[in-house]
Amino acid sequence: MIMTEQARLTTLTQILSDLLGDDTIVLTMDTVREDVAGWDSFAYVNFIVAAEAEFGVRFSIADVESFPNVGAIVRMIGEKRGR
Fold it and tell me: For the whole model, what pTM was predicted?
């Protein structure tokens, strides 16, 4: 099944909301970690691991260190899943 960027964004929002215990989080393609209270480096690593598990992808260390915003993660998931 093909998943849209919006669907991936919604899933990532739920993952981060669950990790931070904050269901008011709304991610956009332009969101950066500094925009979200409590999204520190430890939470970021947990978020990446959870995203990899959810979407069945693996990011390289270089990818993880270079994502400028959530949109880059959404797009990379699509690329890795061939969509």
Answer: 0.94
Distance of alpha carbon 57 from the chain centroid: 12
Counting DSSP H helices and E strands in the chain, the numbers are 4, 0
Each residue of 11-70: pLDDT tens digit?
999 999 999 999 999 999 999 999 999 999 999 999 999 999 999 999 999 999 999 999
Residues 22 and 37: their CA atoms lie apart, in Å, by: 9
Neighbours of 2 (CB within 10 A): 8
The residue whose two tokens read 């960027």 is 5
CA distances from residue 56 to 23, 36, 39, 41 in whole angstroms, order as listed: 24, 25, 23, 22
Domains of the chain: 5-80 (1.10.1200.10)
**3-class secondary-structure state, position 66:** helix
